Every structure is written in structure tokens, then in C-alpha cells.
Amino acid sequence: MPDKVQRVKGVNDILPEEAAKWQALETVIREVMDRFSFGEIRPPIFEKTDLFARGVGEDTDIVSKEMYTFSDMSKSSLTLRPELTAGVVRSYIQNNLQQVSPVQKLWYEGPMFRQERPQKGRYRQFWQFGAEAIGSPNPEQDVEIIALFHTILQKLGIAGSVSLKINSVGDSESRANYRTALQDYLRPRLADLSETSQHRFESNPLRILDSKAPNDKEIIAGAPRILDCLNESSSQHYSQVLKMLDDMGIAYVQDDLLVRGLDYYTHTIFEFTSDALGAQDAICGGGRYNDLVHELGGKETPAIGWASGIERLLLVIDAMQPLETKSTIDCFLVALGDNLREKAPGIVQTWRNGGLSCDFDTLRRSMKAQMREANRQGAAYAAILGEEEYAHGEVQLKNFETGEQTAVAIEKVVSTIKS
Ligand code: HAM
User: Fold this and answer.
1) What is the pLDDT of residues 363-409, one digit of tens each?
2) 175 vs 346: CA distance, rounded Å
3) Across the chain, what does the average pLDDT equal?
4) Beta-sheet pairing, 162-168 with 253-254
5) Which of 13, 62, 257, 408 shows the smallest number of beta carbons within 10 Å?
């Protein structure tokens, strides 16, 4: 026998039973996005590599070691998107979306690709849905974008088991102040830091705050806090955001060591985490990125957004509040004898056109086996078609719940089942 081809490490097959849960989740997402007046955007799955290098940042883990990069026939370097904020901003600029309206509220869903070490909740192809509000610098926008995800959690019934961590990294002046303060604190302790953190000391010292190495954590505990380095306007923006969250009754924890793994953030940053997950506990991450549109060649345009990992969110939902899914059909046609088997596709087609979900046997199985298949599919009814029924233009319609069986005209099956 030829070898079986296996799937690539770190990617998932979403089989029908699981896909039904995805669809239920997607229904909630679409409904809430619609209520918040966000329009869907579907950018391409690959982009020029340069977009991510400039957008996400050369020194980030994502760009420096996790991207799936390849060249096409014209030798351009292309990359499977590791995230979608850069792609949305590219599209916003290229399609002049600022001319459509001064604030563009966009959402998306799709697969992302990162060559990370696979583990529970961390995959190499994973799905995100996300939202980006481009155009407003004001704290109301920060609060709306956070409320958007919070509302989705509420509709899913899991808001209570998820916590929101929030912090501010301020504007570029505040970050420069903090960078200096942090480096001054870390310099005499540099030799005691992990190798990774030592590398980051020059290139991206804020990322050291994210280190999980026990020794680093001890050193970080005594480090200066970014909130103490925010200038007046950054500090004001942040406190207004917190006040509005209080007013809306959205609970949060201020985490002054929270940093994010992408370089574009300014001001408010946040993560939603769940105890139902293991080490990979973030189900959503985001923040402001007021400089990105300009850095990618557009006009100075403030923006804020987030993205949530669908596989992780579904792990939390499964643990807390499983989604209701319908994996049953209305009717299974049980056709008996070769002559009637030929009629089966046409009869089922008229019922399907009438709005029923139905199925029939294409393996020419016995009546018993067909009834078993109807049961396996969770059919509400079996429509049994024998020579005698066919001669009268009828089927025997069996209701699996009540056990009742009655003769029903073939063209009345749809209305009978619907009623
Ligand atoms: P991120 O924190 O890199 O942010 O990813 C957002 C979410 O995607 C994470 O919280 C997690 O739920 C999920 N995720 C990330 N990597 C993986 C993985 N390897 N396997 C499974 N799930 C994963 C961003 O991507 C930003 N673009 C978010 C954003 C939008 N910021 C502003 N706007």
C-alpha cells in the first residue's frame, strides 16, 4: 500500500462535528459585529514580506523566526500572513478608505500562519477573528473596541470566566522615557538576565518584561513601571479609558508589566485571558497603533484593534458553556428496490428545494441498513418508499420521536414535516 500522507505539524483538520461549533461561534461574531456597525474585510492570505517586516517589526519573534516566507516566479519575497492588522492597514491605505468615512470600522476572520512550537492552543495555522477601528484618537474608541469583544464573550456566556488585563505604553515620547529608565535599571543586572533578555536589552528592552525565565522575573519585579513614565497627554488618555470602562461596568485588571509581542503598539494595550487554558491563556490581544498607518505610507491616522484566536476561544467555550449545534437532518429517504433507487435523487431534490435538509442512500443498502443510517444522522423522520407506496405517489413517513408512521403524498412531505 502507498504511504499515507500526514498533515503538516501544528495544523488542524476541522471535521464536520467541530465545524458546526465554528459556525455557531461565527454566527455570534457576525451578529455582534453588525450591531457595532463594523463591516467585514477580506484581505489576501499572502502579502509582500516587507509589509510584515515594517508593520509588525524586524525584531519581533513573529518576523525574526516564525514567518512562512517564499518567493514566487518573479522572485518577490512573499509571506503567509502571521496576523492581519498590517494587511488591513495596507488595504486601508491602498483603497483610500479614509475617503469613504473618517472612521473605518472593519472586522475579519481567517487563517494565520506562524512557525511556533506547537502545543495545546498554539498552532502553526490558526484562525483569528479581529476588529480594527481606524481614524479616531479618542478614548471612546478604545472603550468601544474593548466593549465589542466583551459583548461577544457575553453572548457566548463566558464573560465571567475571562479576565481583561490592560496597560498603557503611551506615545513615542513616553516610551523613549521608559526605555531609558528601564535600561538604566537593567544595565547593572545585565549579566544575571537570560540570554534572550540580554539580546533584547538594546533592540527591544520592553519585551524583557514579558520574559518567563524565573531569574528575569525576579529582576523585573523591581523594575520601574511604564505608567510612571507616561507624559501628561498619554496618562490622561489612559485614565479616561479606565474611567469609561468603569462607567460601563467592564471589569479589568491593570497589569503594568503587560507588553505585547508586536512593535506597532502605542497607548492602550490589553489582553483577555482565561484560566480554562494552559500556558497559552490569551484568547484575545490588541491595542492602539497610532503610528502604523503613517509608517506604512499613509497619512497620520490613529487606530486601535484586537484579534482573537478561534481555536483557543473554542477550548474555553467547550470547558465553560458548550455551544448548541444542530447536526441532525429533517428526513432520510429509505428507497427499496432498484427501480425506486433511481427515483430517489429526484424526490430528495424536490424536498431539498422545498427547504428540508434530507439525505438518501447511494450504496444500495438494505432497508435495515438505511434505517440505521437515518438514525446515525439524527433524522427526525424516515420516508419509506416501496413499490406500493410509489404506485400511490406516497411514502410512509415515520416520526422517530413518536414512533408514529403515516402515509403522506410525496409532494406533501415538505409541508407535513414543516408543520
Ligand atoms: P496576537 O496577540 O499576536 O495579536 O494574536 C492575537 C490572538 O491570536 C492571541 O491572543 C491568540 O488568541 C491567537 N493566537 C496567536 N498566535 C496563535 C497560535 N500560534 N495558535 C493559536 N492561536 C494564536 C495580533 O495578532 C494582533 N494583530 C492583534 C491586533 C489587532 N492588535 C491590534 N489590532
Assistant:
1) 999 999 999 999 999 999 999 999 999 999 999 999 999 999 999 99
2) 69
3) 95
4) parallel
5) 13
**How many angstroms is it from 286 CA to the middle of ligand 1?**
8
Please tell us whether the domain made up of 16-171+231-320 is placed in CATH 3.40.930.10.
Answer: no
CA-116 nearest atom, ligand 1? 19
Contact 325, 370 (CB under 8 A): no
72 alpha carbon – ligand 1 mean position (Å): 27
Tell me the percentage of the chain whose pLDDT exceeds 90.
92
We find that the CATH architecture of domain 331-418 is 3-Layer(aba) Sandwich (3.40)
- Ligand 1 centre distance from Cα of residue 50 (Å): 20
Using DSSP's 3-state secondary structure scheme, residue 147 falls into helix
Calculate the CA dihedral of residues 311, 290, 220, 201 and round it to 10 degrees. Answer: 100
Query: For the chain, what are the domain ranges?
Result: 16-171+231-320, 331-418
Q: Judge if pTM exceeds 0.90.
A: yes
Pocket, ligand 1, Cβ cutoff 6 A: 83, 85, 114, 116, 121-123, 126, 128, 130, 132, 261-262, 282-287, 289, 305-309, 311-312
The pLDDT tens digits for 279-313 are 889 999 999 999 999 999 999 999 999 999 999 99
